[in-house]
Amino acid sequence: MYHPDVFSHYGPSYGIRTPHTMASAYAPGHHEAFRYPDLEHTGPRFDSLFPSLDHHQRGLPGPQGPALSLPPHLGYGQPPPQCQASRLPGNVKMTMENIELWKQFNAIGTEMILTKAGRRMFPQCKVRVSGLDPHARYMMLLDIVAVDNTRYKWQEKRWEASGKAEPQLPNRVYIHPESPASGEQWMKQTISFHKIKLTNNTLDQMGHIILHSMHKYQPRFHIVQANDVFSRRWGGCSSFTFPETTFVTVTAYQNEEITQLKISTNPFAKGFREDGMNHKRERDSRMKRKAKSPRRETESLQSEYKQVRLSGPCDSTLDEEMGVRPLDLVMQLPSPDCSFHPISPPATPSPNPPFPRAQESQSQEIGVPASAEAYLQHPAVFHGMQTAKESNMFSRPASDVPQENNIGKSEALNMAYLGPEEPVEPETSPSAEISNDFRTQPSTNYSTCYSFDLNSLVGHGGPDFSSMGYGPRMEEGPLAVRGGPAFPPSNDLRFQAFMQNSCSAYALPFPGAQLSRAYSTQPASAYLDTDKSIF
DNA sequence: TCCCCTCACACTTTTGAAGTGT
DNA sequence: AACACTTCAAAAGTGTGAGGGG
């Protein structure tokens, strides 16, 4: 599990702390929350964020309040608080491109492998969106949240609850590498999140998504209107989940059916198919021959290999892409209806069974993009880099910010759960100023990562934080670090996944490796302490 | 003893640099 | 010289199964 000591390289105030008492707002049996005292003492700063919630419901309590879990409104148990950004218009829809494949897996009980180095998801998350403004720019985010507070075990050929879940890990958010792109671009192609990797390595520095093994999770997709990834202005956001994409994390497959389905549908596992060279039968006979005569084995292998290649092994990539499935693995599935189904209340946690067979097959828009909101407010926290207090170094004092932006939030929250089909509020024109900029909301911790313009970063010697209201003005120095590599004055860029995903896409002058080196050789505090003249 | 995790392995696909042709 | 296409080696993505730790 986490220990503050092992995260020291993230800086002194990076706080993964020992779990404290459970938030009283959570129902009994819910997860044990991490507490972030830095945030707990924020007091009324957060009040305006959730005007329609009573204090005890907010999960963002004052000093005497219940424990705050961070991410504060992840997942299960209670409705997450309303996102401060407006929702995207109601006609924004998302469909899962390979939903049939997901359904096949879900019918059995999807398992996803976790490895230390990170393992890709299969099936992959491929979505399509519609209803976006073709000219506006959007970012696509994905995060993975625990579905319930239960740890599972594989027993008697089924998943059974085996106790309470491990404390939640800091939620990492994957930003699609093509973000931001115009609505037109997003809508004309399948959006694939295939590069996401899952790990059980709590010390992971590669930016992979950290999950616990033997737990149940679900991916969430977020569409955020933003002109660029560093923009200070964020427009509306909408979030979506697909019930079929729920999975249990494992370090080795438990369910033989899942293994076989993965082998038959994942091109990389082709070698383990009946006709594959890595099939058990092949391997066994190879081992026997090898034991007899190593040299002849090699020759025989080569000839076999040629034959297989010439005869053309079965290509299940085609199966997947053409919608053709191995007959023996097709399960009885609920009728596909992937139409958009906005605004569903969060499901009541039901630890068992982990995979209800007849789930609705609609995407569910999370009217409230729970952790996405928290992410946008405290991205670095989600990346395991710093506490909100730390990220608050560049935040404007709450008192400096007008309060009127919260008008209408109460209605928005109610609508999010009561389910009107109409958009919460009219969307601003893409070319117009995005008025609902929750980064300028009171009580918001401004992101140090995305909160300056790329132009200022590249062309003008670095951002002017003071003019942005993010903190002390950096008088000197563009990007060059004295005696070290250049990098933008944003400690959040230490999030390597972001760096890797963003550098090429945004043509940052700092390759991921360079940034990695820069950050790995400097304690986080060095980047945060302006006295040390890093910038 | 059991459960879960890690690692090395053999196989496959993907990626990108180098070479070749137009 | 520039571009498009092909080739090929390296890198990366798979499940397996032995072995180890708690």
Features:
ten-stranded mixed beta sheet, DNA-binding, about 15% strand, about 525 residues, disordered N terminus, disordered C terminus, globular, T-box transcription factor TBX6, 16 strands, transcription, transcription regulation, DNA-binding transcription factor activity, RNA polymerase II-specific, alpha+beta
Please give a structural write-up:
- The structure is a single chain.
- The protein is an alpha+beta fold and 535 residues long.
- The protein contains 17 helices and 16 strands.
- It has helices at 37-40, 55-58, 99-108, 183-188, 256-265, 280-292, 294-311, 316-321, 370-377, 379-382, 388-391, 409-418, 454-459, 465-468, 496-506, 512-520, 524-528; strands at residues 93-96, 111-113, 119-120, 126-130, 137-155, 158-164, 173-175, 181-182, 191-192, 197-199, 209-210, 215-226, 234-241, 247-250, 340-341, 363-366.
- Strands 2, 5, 6, 7, 8, 12, 13, 14, 15 and 16 form a 10-stranded mixed beta sheet that branches. The protein has a 3-stranded antiparallel beta sheet with strand order 1-4-9.
- A hairpin with a 7-residue loop joins β12 (215-226) and β13.
- The two termini are 34 Å apart.
- Mean pLDDT is 53; it is low at 1-83, 294-354, 356-361 and 367-535.
- It binds a DNA duplex (22 and 22 nucleotides) through residues 113-116, 119-120, 122, 153-154, 200, 213-214, 250-253, 259, 262-263, 266-272, 276-278, 280, 283, 286, 313, 317.
- One of its GO terms (cellular component) is nucleus.
- Residues 343-356 have a biased composition (Pro residues).
- InterPro entries: p53-like_TF_DNA-bd_sf, T-box_DNA-bd, T-box_sf, TF_T-box, TF_T-box_CS.
- It is found in: Nucleus.
